[in-house]
Amino acid sequence: GENVEQHPSTLSVQEGDSAVIKCTYSDSASNYFPWYKQELGKRPQLIIDIRSNVGEKKDQRIAVTLNKTAKHFSLHITETQPEDSAVYFCAARGGAGRRALTFGSGTRLQVQP
Amino acid sequence: DAGVIQSPRHEVTEMGQEVTLRCKPISGHDYLFWYRQTMMRGLELLIYFNNNVPIDDSGMPEDRFSAKMPNASFSTLKIQPSEPRDSAVYFCASSSTGANTEAFFGQGTRLTVV
After folding, report:
1. Using CA atoms, how far apart are residues B10 and B28, in angstroms rounded to an integer?
2. How far is residue B60's CA from residue A68's CA, in Å, rounded to a whole number?
3. Rounded distance, CA A62 to CA A75, Å?
4. Residue B74: how many other CB atoms lie within 10 Å
5. What is the pLDDT of residues B22-81, one digit of tens each?
6. Which of A99, A102, A107 should we substitute to test contact with B (largest number of B Cβ atoms within 10 Å)?
7. How far apart are CA A89 and CA B103, in angstroms?
8. Pairwise CA distance, residues A22 & A112, whole Å
9. ω into residue B61 within 30 of 0, thus cis?
10. Residue B2: how many other CB atoms lie within 10 Å
11. Chain A residues with at least one Cβ partner in B under 8 Å
């Protein structure tokens, strides 16, 4: 089955700096790659996603890039703010009709004011 | 829509007792997922349904766990008998087959088995 690895496990940045989180996946048939943000005690919520026919997607301060050849994708957050502090999860959905997401292990992002 | 609704939000039970977690997916969604979240293992898929039919239950830890979806608006995850290692946050999520395939999560049930 699909295996998703995520790095780093923790990331501390100064407010205003950029943050980058990287993930790799194993199933070359995977075609959908969402990123979820989870605040303490809350549910995971989608912040951005990308499909396999697109190399990059941007939404204000957040961008995601996908390299299908290398089977890795990354989340980029620019001009970080204290409210960006949370745990971020990448995920991948395999092909062949498989609908469930396989999640990475999460990155705890701390933005220092 | 109120989103995915789970109950109870918190459950504390003694080892050996039966526990039932409940989920109401978003109306119109035809996929329902049960995930378990722990510090050690992260977010793990337990089982998922399509149109009320279980599609993949390979993530269900053992026979103590069972899940049902008797209709499009309700699903249960049952643990019998419960053990301390079952302590975790259990999330239900739902999505649709359409163009927007985002999975929406419920608030989760925090289960503590003592």
Report:
1. 27
2. 30
3. 7
4. 14
5. 999 999 999 999 999 999 999 999 999 999 999 999 999 889 999 999 999 999 999 999
6. A99
7. 13
8. 21
9. no
10. 7
11. 1, 32, 34, 42-46, 49, 89, 93, 98-106
